[in-house]
Design goal:
The chain is about 35% helix and about 25% strand. It is built from 14 helices and 18 strands. A hairpin with a 6-residue loop joins strand 8 (about 145-150) and strand 9 (about 160-165).
Length: about 475
Protein backbone atom coordinates (compact mmCIF):
# COMPACT_ATOMS: atom_id res chain seq x y z
CA UNK A 1 0.00 0.00 0.00
CA UNK A 2 2.05 2.91 -1.33
CA UNK A 3 0.57 6.15 -0.01
CA UNK A 4 2.14 9.49 0.93
CA UNK A 5 1.61 8.56 4.56
CA UNK A 6 3.24 5.13 4.45
CA UNK A 7 5.15 4.41 7.67
CA UNK A 8 6.60 0.98 7.02
CA UNK A 9 6.20 -2.50 5.66
CA UNK A 10 4.89 -4.60 8.57
CA UNK A 11 2.94 -3.80 11.70
CA UNK A 12 2.27 -6.50 14.29
CA UNK A 13 -0.78 -6.52 16.57
CA UNK A 14 -0.76 -8.89 19.52
CA UNK A 15 -4.28 -10.09 20.25
CA UNK A 16 -7.53 -10.05 18.25
CA UNK A 17 -9.39 -8.30 21.04
CA UNK A 18 -11.57 -5.30 20.29
CA UNK A 19 -8.52 -3.12 21.00
CA UNK A 20 -6.36 -5.28 18.71
CA UNK A 21 -8.84 -5.42 15.84
CA UNK A 22 -9.57 -1.69 15.85
CA UNK A 23 -5.84 -0.94 16.13
CA UNK A 24 -5.20 -3.16 13.10
CA UNK A 25 -7.82 -1.18 11.19
CA UNK A 26 -5.94 2.07 11.92
CA UNK A 27 -2.50 0.60 11.18
CA UNK A 28 -3.75 -0.70 7.81
CA UNK A 29 -3.71 2.91 6.62
CA UNK A 30 0.02 3.26 7.20
CA UNK A 31 1.67 -0.17 6.72
CA UNK A 32 1.84 -2.52 3.75
CA UNK A 33 0.80 -5.44 5.91
CA UNK A 34 -0.75 -5.78 9.36
CA UNK A 35 -0.38 -9.17 11.06
CA UNK A 36 -2.54 -10.04 14.06
CA UNK A 37 -1.08 -12.74 16.30
CA UNK A 38 -3.91 -14.47 18.20
CA UNK A 39 -4.12 -17.45 20.57
CA UNK A 40 -7.67 -18.41 19.52
CA UNK A 41 -8.05 -20.86 16.65
CA UNK A 42 -9.19 -19.81 13.18
CA UNK A 43 -12.63 -21.39 13.61
CA UNK A 44 -13.21 -19.28 16.75
CA UNK A 45 -12.17 -16.11 14.96
CA UNK A 46 -14.47 -16.89 12.04
CA UNK A 47 -17.42 -16.02 14.35
CA UNK A 48 -19.82 -18.07 12.23
CA UNK A 49 -22.21 -18.15 15.20
CA UNK A 50 -22.82 -15.98 18.24
CA UNK A 51 -20.89 -18.37 20.44
CA UNK A 52 -18.61 -16.47 22.87
CA UNK A 53 -14.93 -16.64 21.98
CA UNK A 54 -12.60 -18.51 24.31
CA UNK A 55 -10.08 -15.67 24.13
CA UNK A 56 -12.62 -13.14 25.45
CA UNK A 57 -13.43 -14.56 28.90
CA UNK A 58 -16.00 -11.86 29.72
CA UNK A 59 -17.95 -12.23 26.48
CA UNK A 60 -20.86 -14.03 28.17
CA UNK A 61 -21.52 -11.04 30.41
CA UNK A 62 -23.39 -7.82 29.72
CA UNK A 63 -21.47 -5.23 27.71
CA UNK A 64 -23.24 -1.92 27.32
CA UNK A 65 -22.04 0.01 24.31
CA UNK A 66 -21.87 3.68 25.30
CA UNK A 67 -22.68 6.33 22.70
CA UNK A 68 -19.11 7.61 22.58
CA UNK A 69 -17.87 4.11 21.83
CA UNK A 70 -20.51 3.43 19.20
CA UNK A 71 -19.67 6.66 17.40
CA UNK A 72 -15.93 5.91 17.51
CA UNK A 73 -16.38 2.38 16.14
CA UNK A 74 -18.81 3.63 13.48
CA UNK A 75 -16.21 6.16 12.38
CA UNK A 76 -13.54 3.47 12.13
CA UNK A 77 -15.87 0.86 10.62
CA UNK A 78 -18.64 2.58 8.62
CA UNK A 79 -21.95 0.76 8.78
CA UNK A 80 -21.27 -0.67 12.23
CA UNK A 81 -24.49 0.66 13.81
CA UNK A 82 -26.61 -0.56 10.89
CA UNK A 83 -24.99 -3.98 11.22
CA UNK A 84 -25.87 -4.06 14.93
CA UNK A 85 -29.53 -3.51 14.09
CA UNK A 86 -29.43 -6.11 11.30
CA UNK A 87 -27.97 -8.62 13.78
CA UNK A 88 -30.87 -8.08 16.18
CA UNK A 89 -29.63 -5.34 18.47
CA UNK A 90 -32.43 -3.52 20.28
CA UNK A 91 -32.41 0.25 19.83
CA UNK A 92 -33.92 3.14 21.72
CA UNK A 93 -33.39 6.49 23.35
CA UNK A 94 -31.07 6.18 26.34
CA UNK A 95 -32.98 8.33 28.82
CA UNK A 96 -36.38 7.09 27.67
CA UNK A 97 -35.94 3.32 27.25
CA UNK A 98 -33.37 2.73 30.00
CA UNK A 99 -34.53 2.40 33.62
CA UNK A 100 -31.63 3.42 35.86
CA UNK A 101 -31.48 3.50 39.64
CA UNK A 102 -28.38 5.33 40.85
CA UNK A 103 -27.54 6.99 44.17
CA UNK A 104 -30.65 5.47 45.71
CA UNK A 105 -33.23 6.93 43.32
CA UNK A 106 -34.68 6.31 39.87
CA UNK A 107 -33.86 8.75 37.12
CA UNK A 108 -36.84 10.28 35.32
CA UNK A 109 -37.48 9.02 31.79
CA UNK A 110 -37.28 11.68 29.08
CA UNK A 111 -36.16 12.05 25.47
CA UNK A 112 -32.39 12.62 25.46
CA UNK A 113 -30.11 13.10 22.47
CA UNK A 114 -28.32 9.75 23.00
CA UNK A 115 -29.14 6.59 21.05
CA UNK A 116 -28.74 3.24 22.79
CA UNK A 117 -27.94 -0.13 21.19
CA UNK A 118 -28.50 -3.21 23.35
CA UNK A 119 -27.11 -6.61 22.33
CA UNK A 120 -24.90 -9.44 23.54
CA UNK A 121 -21.13 -9.07 23.37
CA UNK A 122 -20.72 -11.72 20.61
CA UNK A 123 -22.83 -9.55 18.27
CA UNK A 124 -20.31 -6.74 18.64
CA UNK A 125 -17.36 -9.12 18.29
CA UNK A 126 -18.77 -10.76 15.17
CA UNK A 127 -19.34 -7.47 13.37
CA UNK A 128 -16.01 -5.90 14.32
CA UNK A 129 -14.07 -9.07 13.46
CA UNK A 130 -15.67 -9.50 10.05
CA UNK A 131 -15.26 -5.87 9.08
CA UNK A 132 -11.61 -5.68 10.13
CA UNK A 133 -10.57 -9.00 8.62
CA UNK A 134 -12.17 -7.98 5.32
CA UNK A 135 -9.50 -5.26 4.94
CA UNK A 136 -7.11 -6.64 2.27
CA UNK A 137 -3.77 -5.91 3.97
CA UNK A 138 -4.75 -7.37 7.37
CA UNK A 139 -4.19 -11.04 8.11
CA UNK A 140 -4.41 -13.20 11.23
CA UNK A 141 -2.03 -15.87 12.41
CA UNK A 142 -4.15 -17.92 14.80
CA UNK A 143 -3.29 -20.51 17.42
CA UNK A 144 -0.05 -18.81 18.48
CA UNK A 145 1.27 -17.30 21.70
CA UNK A 146 3.64 -14.33 21.69
CA UNK A 147 6.71 -15.21 23.75
CA UNK A 148 9.18 -12.35 23.34
CA UNK A 149 10.01 -8.99 21.81
CA UNK A 150 13.50 -8.82 20.26
CA UNK A 151 15.39 -5.53 20.36
CA UNK A 152 17.97 -4.15 17.97
CA UNK A 153 21.61 -3.73 19.02
CA UNK A 154 20.94 -0.25 20.42
CA UNK A 155 17.97 -1.56 22.46
CA UNK A 156 15.80 1.27 21.11
CA UNK A 157 13.50 -0.61 18.72
CA UNK A 158 11.74 -3.95 18.53
CA UNK A 159 12.87 -5.70 15.35
CA UNK A 160 10.99 -8.99 15.70
CA UNK A 161 8.07 -10.50 17.59
CA UNK A 162 8.60 -14.10 18.65
CA UNK A 163 5.53 -16.37 18.58
CA UNK A 164 5.07 -20.07 19.27
CA UNK A 165 2.35 -22.34 17.91
CA UNK A 166 0.77 -25.28 19.71
CA UNK A 167 3.32 -27.69 18.24
CA UNK A 168 6.12 -25.68 19.82
CA UNK A 169 7.44 -24.16 16.58
CA UNK A 170 8.93 -20.68 16.93
CA UNK A 171 8.51 -17.94 14.32
CA UNK A 172 10.10 -14.49 14.35
CA UNK A 173 7.92 -11.84 12.68
CA UNK A 174 9.56 -8.69 11.30
CA UNK A 175 8.10 -5.61 12.93
CA UNK A 176 8.26 -1.94 11.97
CA UNK A 177 5.60 -1.16 14.59
CA UNK A 178 3.96 -3.24 17.33
CA UNK A 179 0.70 -2.91 19.28
CA UNK A 180 0.28 -5.12 22.35
CA UNK A 181 -3.48 -5.52 22.83
CA UNK A 182 -3.10 -8.71 24.83
CA UNK A 183 -5.31 -7.63 27.72
CA UNK A 184 -4.62 -7.17 31.41
CA UNK A 185 -2.16 -10.07 31.40
CA UNK A 186 -0.32 -8.84 28.29
CA UNK A 187 3.32 -9.72 27.72
CA UNK A 188 4.58 -6.16 27.23
CA UNK A 189 4.45 -4.86 30.85
CA UNK A 190 6.13 -8.08 32.06
CA UNK A 191 8.70 -7.84 29.29
CA UNK A 192 9.46 -4.22 30.21
CA UNK A 193 10.07 -5.22 33.82
CA UNK A 194 12.92 -7.50 32.74
CA UNK A 195 14.24 -5.07 30.12
CA UNK A 196 16.58 -2.06 30.52
CA UNK A 197 13.46 0.16 30.55
CA UNK A 198 11.86 -1.21 33.70
CA UNK A 199 8.17 -1.70 34.51
CA UNK A 200 5.63 1.11 34.19
CA UNK A 201 4.17 2.60 37.40
CA UNK A 202 0.91 0.86 38.30
CA UNK A 203 -2.18 1.94 40.24
CA UNK A 204 -4.55 -0.76 41.50
CA UNK A 205 -7.91 0.13 43.04
CA UNK A 206 -9.09 -2.93 44.92
CA UNK A 207 -12.80 -3.60 45.50
CA UNK A 208 -13.16 -7.41 45.18
CA UNK A 209 -15.97 -7.48 42.63
CA UNK A 210 -17.62 -10.58 41.16
CA UNK A 211 -20.49 -10.84 38.75
CA UNK A 212 -22.65 -13.73 37.54
CA UNK A 213 -24.54 -13.79 34.25
CA UNK A 214 -27.27 -15.89 32.69
CA UNK A 215 -29.55 -15.79 29.66
CA UNK A 216 -33.31 -16.37 29.76
CA UNK A 217 -35.88 -16.67 26.99
CA UNK A 218 -38.51 -13.95 27.25
CA UNK A 219 -42.06 -13.92 25.95
CA UNK A 220 -42.02 -12.02 22.62
CA UNK A 221 -45.65 -11.07 23.24
CA UNK A 222 -44.52 -8.81 26.09
CA UNK A 223 -44.17 -5.31 24.64
CA UNK A 224 -41.47 -3.70 26.74
CA UNK A 225 -41.28 0.05 27.10
CA UNK A 226 -37.74 -0.46 28.36
CA UNK A 227 -34.65 -2.12 26.87
CA UNK A 228 -32.48 -2.22 29.96
CA UNK A 229 -32.96 -1.93 33.71
CA UNK A 230 -29.91 -1.09 35.83
CA UNK A 231 -29.95 -1.21 39.62
CA UNK A 232 -26.70 0.32 40.85
CA UNK A 233 -25.91 -0.02 44.54
CA UNK A 234 -26.30 3.09 46.67
CA UNK A 235 -22.70 3.30 47.83
CA UNK A 236 -21.60 2.83 50.61
CA UNK A 237 -24.85 1.45 52.07
CA UNK A 238 -25.39 -1.25 49.42
CA UNK A 239 -22.96 -3.77 47.94
CA UNK A 240 -25.22 -5.47 45.40
CA UNK A 241 -26.34 -4.44 41.94
CA UNK A 242 -27.68 -5.90 38.73
CA UNK A 243 -28.67 -5.28 35.12
CA UNK A 244 -31.22 -6.94 32.84
CA UNK A 245 -31.10 -6.32 29.09
CA UNK A 246 -33.47 -7.18 26.27
CA UNK A 247 -31.12 -8.60 23.64
CA UNK A 248 -31.39 -10.31 20.27
CA UNK A 249 -33.57 -13.40 19.70
CA UNK A 250 -36.12 -12.47 22.38
CA UNK A 251 -33.79 -13.04 25.29
CA UNK A 252 -33.01 -11.46 28.62
CA UNK A 253 -29.35 -11.16 29.53
CA UNK A 254 -28.98 -10.70 33.28
CA UNK A 255 -25.84 -9.82 35.24
CA UNK A 256 -25.82 -9.61 39.04
CA UNK A 257 -22.77 -8.32 40.89
CA UNK A 258 -21.45 -7.57 44.34
CA UNK A 259 -18.53 -5.67 45.82
CA UNK A 260 -16.11 -6.53 48.62
CA UNK A 261 -16.79 -10.25 48.80
CA UNK A 262 -20.61 -10.10 48.60
CA UNK A 263 -20.62 -12.16 45.41
CA UNK A 264 -23.62 -13.59 43.52
CA UNK A 265 -23.92 -17.41 43.33
CA UNK A 266 -23.98 -19.55 40.18
CA UNK A 267 -26.92 -21.86 40.96
CA UNK A 268 -30.42 -20.95 39.80
CA UNK A 269 -32.01 -20.72 43.24
CA UNK A 270 -29.13 -18.65 44.65
CA UNK A 271 -29.02 -16.43 41.56
CA UNK A 272 -32.72 -15.61 41.82
CA UNK A 273 -32.50 -15.11 45.57
CA UNK A 274 -29.65 -12.63 45.02
CA UNK A 275 -31.83 -10.80 42.45
CA UNK A 276 -34.70 -10.75 44.95
CA UNK A 277 -32.42 -9.16 47.56
CA UNK A 278 -31.70 -6.11 45.39
CA UNK A 279 -33.19 -2.83 46.66
CA UNK A 280 -35.87 -2.79 43.95
CA UNK A 281 -37.75 -5.79 42.46
CA UNK A 282 -37.59 -5.07 38.71
CA UNK A 283 -34.86 -7.59 37.82
CA UNK A 284 -36.27 -10.35 40.02
CA UNK A 285 -39.76 -9.82 38.63
CA UNK A 286 -38.41 -10.19 35.08
CA UNK A 287 -36.84 -13.64 35.68
CA UNK A 288 -38.56 -15.22 38.69
CA UNK A 289 -40.75 -17.53 36.55
CA UNK A 290 -38.15 -18.21 33.84
CA UNK A 291 -35.60 -21.01 33.51
CA UNK A 292 -31.95 -20.19 32.74
CA UNK A 293 -30.56 -21.07 29.31
CA UNK A 294 -27.29 -22.83 30.05
CA UNK A 295 -24.92 -22.31 32.92
CA UNK A 296 -24.69 -19.25 35.13
CA UNK A 297 -21.19 -17.89 34.57
CA UNK A 298 -19.24 -15.95 37.20
CA UNK A 299 -16.21 -13.72 36.72
CA UNK A 300 -14.09 -12.25 39.51
CA UNK A 301 -12.40 -8.87 39.24
CA UNK A 302 -10.16 -7.82 42.10
CA UNK A 303 -9.94 -4.20 41.01
CA UNK A 304 -9.20 -1.61 38.34
CA UNK A 305 -5.59 -1.53 37.13
CA UNK A 306 -3.90 1.35 35.35
CA UNK A 307 -0.37 1.23 33.97
CA UNK A 308 1.16 4.67 33.51
CA UNK A 309 3.40 4.19 30.48
CA UNK A 310 3.16 7.93 29.90
CA UNK A 311 5.20 8.47 33.08
CA UNK A 312 8.12 6.29 31.98
CA UNK A 313 11.32 8.18 31.09
CA UNK A 314 11.64 6.16 27.90
CA UNK A 315 10.25 3.11 26.12
CA UNK A 316 11.16 1.33 22.88
CA UNK A 317 10.39 3.60 19.94
CA UNK A 318 8.03 1.34 18.00
CA UNK A 319 5.84 -0.58 20.44
CA UNK A 320 2.75 0.56 22.34
CA UNK A 321 0.33 -1.14 24.73
CA UNK A 322 -3.36 -0.35 24.39
CA UNK A 323 -6.70 -1.39 25.87
CA UNK A 324 -6.62 -3.48 29.04
CA UNK A 325 -2.85 -3.79 28.64
CA UNK A 326 -2.79 -0.12 29.66
CA UNK A 327 -5.95 0.26 31.74
CA UNK A 328 -8.46 -2.33 32.97
CA UNK A 329 -11.62 -0.52 34.12
CA UNK A 330 -14.32 -1.56 36.57
CA UNK A 331 -16.73 -3.60 34.40
CA UNK A 332 -19.75 -2.55 36.48
CA UNK A 333 -19.49 0.87 34.82
CA UNK A 334 -19.68 -0.54 31.27
CA UNK A 335 -16.80 1.59 29.97
CA UNK A 336 -14.48 -1.07 28.53
CA UNK A 337 -15.34 -1.40 24.84
CA UNK A 338 -16.19 2.27 24.48
CA UNK A 339 -13.01 3.39 26.22
CA UNK A 340 -10.94 1.14 23.95
CA UNK A 341 -12.59 2.52 20.81
CA UNK A 342 -11.83 6.08 21.90
CA UNK A 343 -8.23 5.11 22.70
CA UNK A 344 -7.81 3.80 19.15
CA UNK A 345 -9.27 7.01 17.74
CA UNK A 346 -6.77 9.00 19.82
CA UNK A 347 -3.92 6.84 18.54
CA UNK A 348 -5.16 7.35 15.00
CA UNK A 349 -4.79 11.10 15.40
CA UNK A 350 -1.21 10.80 16.69
CA UNK A 351 -0.22 8.42 13.87
CA UNK A 352 -1.62 10.89 11.34
CA UNK A 353 0.59 13.63 12.78
CA UNK A 354 3.56 11.23 12.75
CA UNK A 355 2.92 10.31 9.12
CA UNK A 356 2.92 14.01 8.19
CA UNK A 357 6.30 14.49 9.86
CA UNK A 358 5.06 16.46 12.87
CA UNK A 359 6.17 13.83 15.41
CA UNK A 360 9.51 11.99 15.37
CA UNK A 361 9.78 8.23 15.72
CA UNK A 362 11.60 8.64 19.04
CA UNK A 363 8.76 10.74 20.45
CA UNK A 364 5.95 8.60 19.02
CA UNK A 365 5.23 6.24 21.97
CA UNK A 366 5.21 9.08 24.50
CA UNK A 367 2.82 11.10 22.31
CA UNK A 368 0.51 8.10 21.91
CA UNK A 369 0.55 7.31 25.62
CA UNK A 370 -0.29 10.89 26.56
CA UNK A 371 -3.20 10.84 24.09
CA UNK A 372 -4.44 7.51 25.47
CA UNK A 373 -4.06 8.75 29.03
CA UNK A 374 -6.27 11.77 28.34
CA UNK A 375 -8.96 9.41 27.05
CA UNK A 376 -8.63 7.06 30.03
CA UNK A 377 -8.76 9.86 32.61
CA UNK A 378 -12.52 10.34 32.24
CA UNK A 379 -13.82 6.76 32.70
CA UNK A 380 -11.11 6.09 35.29
CA UNK A 381 -12.13 9.08 37.40
CA UNK A 382 -15.85 8.29 37.16
CA UNK A 383 -15.52 4.70 38.39
CA UNK A 384 -12.64 5.32 40.81
CA UNK A 385 -14.39 7.99 42.84
CA UNK A 386 -17.56 5.92 43.23
CA UNK A 387 -15.59 2.87 44.41
CA UNK A 388 -13.76 4.90 47.04
CA UNK A 389 -17.06 5.59 48.76
CA UNK A 390 -16.66 2.07 50.13
CA UNK A 391 -14.35 2.30 53.18
CA UNK A 392 -12.72 -1.04 52.35
CA UNK A 393 -11.64 -0.02 48.84
CA UNK A 394 -7.84 0.04 48.55
CA UNK A 395 -5.58 2.27 46.49
CA UNK A 396 -4.73 5.95 46.25
CA UNK A 397 -7.51 8.51 46.11
CA UNK A 398 -7.23 11.59 43.94
CA UNK A 399 -6.34 14.77 45.83
CA UNK A 400 -9.52 16.18 44.25
CA UNK A 401 -11.66 13.30 45.53
CA UNK A 402 -13.73 15.36 47.99
CA UNK A 403 -14.75 18.26 45.69
CA UNK A 404 -15.23 16.00 42.66
CA UNK A 405 -17.44 13.65 44.65
CA UNK A 406 -19.47 16.52 46.06
CA UNK A 407 -20.19 17.89 42.58
CA UNK A 408 -20.97 14.48 41.07
CA UNK A 409 -23.25 13.53 43.95
CA UNK A 410 -25.32 16.68 43.47
CA UNK A 411 -25.53 16.07 39.74
CA UNK A 412 -26.57 12.44 40.24
CA UNK A 413 -29.36 13.48 42.61
CA UNK A 414 -30.84 15.96 40.13
CA UNK A 415 -34.13 15.31 38.36
CA UNK A 416 -33.71 18.12 35.83
CA UNK A 417 -33.69 16.68 32.26
CA UNK A 418 -31.22 19.31 31.03
CA UNK A 419 -28.74 18.55 33.82
CA UNK A 420 -29.21 14.81 33.45
CA UNK A 421 -28.85 14.88 29.67
CA UNK A 422 -25.48 16.61 30.02
CA UNK A 423 -24.49 14.16 32.78
CA UNK A 424 -25.46 11.23 30.54
CA UNK A 425 -23.36 12.68 27.70
CA UNK A 426 -20.34 12.66 30.04
CA UNK A 427 -21.09 9.13 31.28
CA UNK A 428 -21.41 7.99 27.65
CA UNK A 429 -17.95 9.44 26.92
CA UNK A 430 -19.36 11.90 24.38
CA UNK A 431 -18.59 15.16 26.22
CA UNK A 432 -15.89 16.23 28.63
CA UNK A 433 -16.72 16.44 32.36
CA UNK A 434 -15.96 20.15 32.06
CA UNK A 435 -19.19 20.48 30.09
CA UNK A 436 -20.99 20.09 33.44
CA UNK A 437 -19.52 23.45 34.45
CA UNK A 438 -21.59 25.36 31.90
CA UNK A 439 -23.36 28.30 33.60
CA UNK A 440 -26.86 27.00 32.90
CA UNK A 441 -26.00 23.60 34.42
CA UNK A 442 -24.40 25.15 37.51
CA UNK A 443 -27.36 27.51 37.97
CA UNK A 444 -29.81 24.62 37.90
CA UNK A 445 -27.67 22.61 40.30
CA UNK A 446 -27.52 25.57 42.69
CA UNK A 447 -31.29 25.99 42.63
CA UNK A 448 -31.78 22.25 43.14
CA UNK A 449 -29.33 22.24 46.08
CA UNK A 450 -31.08 25.22 47.68
CA UNK A 451 -34.47 23.56 47.24
CA UNK A 452 -33.23 20.30 48.79
CA UNK A 453 -31.70 22.19 51.71
CA UNK A 454 -34.97 24.06 52.38
CA UNK A 455 -36.94 20.80 52.10
CA UNK A 456 -34.61 19.07 54.56
CA UNK A 457 -34.89 21.98 57.02
CA UNK A 458 -38.71 21.87 56.78
CA UNK A 459 -38.66 18.12 57.40
CA UNK A 460 -36.41 18.56 60.44
CA UNK A 461 -38.75 21.25 61.89
CA UNK A 462 -41.79 19.01 61.44
CA UNK A 463 -39.98 16.05 62.98
CA UNK A 464 -39.00 18.11 66.03
CA UNK A 465 -42.59 19.12 66.84
Amino acid sequence: MNTPHRLGQTAIVVGASTAGLLSARVLSEYYDEVIILERDHAEDLAMTSLRPRKGIPQSRHIHILLSGGEMAISDLLPGFADDLVAAGAQTGNFAYTIRWRLSGHWYPQFKSDLAQYVQSRPVIDQIVTRKVLAIPNIRVVSGVKVKDYLLDSSATRVTHVEAQNEEGDITHYDADFVIDAGGRGALYPRWLKDSPYGAPPEHLIGFDLAYSTCTFDRDPAIDHTWLLTALYPHIPDELRGGVVCCIENNQYLVTLYGYHGDHPPTDEAGFKEFAKSLPSPEIYDSIKDLAPKGDIIRHKFIGSLRRHYERMPRTPQNIVAIGDAMCSLNPAFAQGISGVALEVKAMQGVLADHAQGHISQAALPKKIYHALSRVIDVPWDISRDECFKYPHTTGNRSILYAPQTWVKDHIMRSNDPDVLNQFFRVVHLVDSPFSLLQPRILAKLFRFTQHKQISNEDTAIVASR
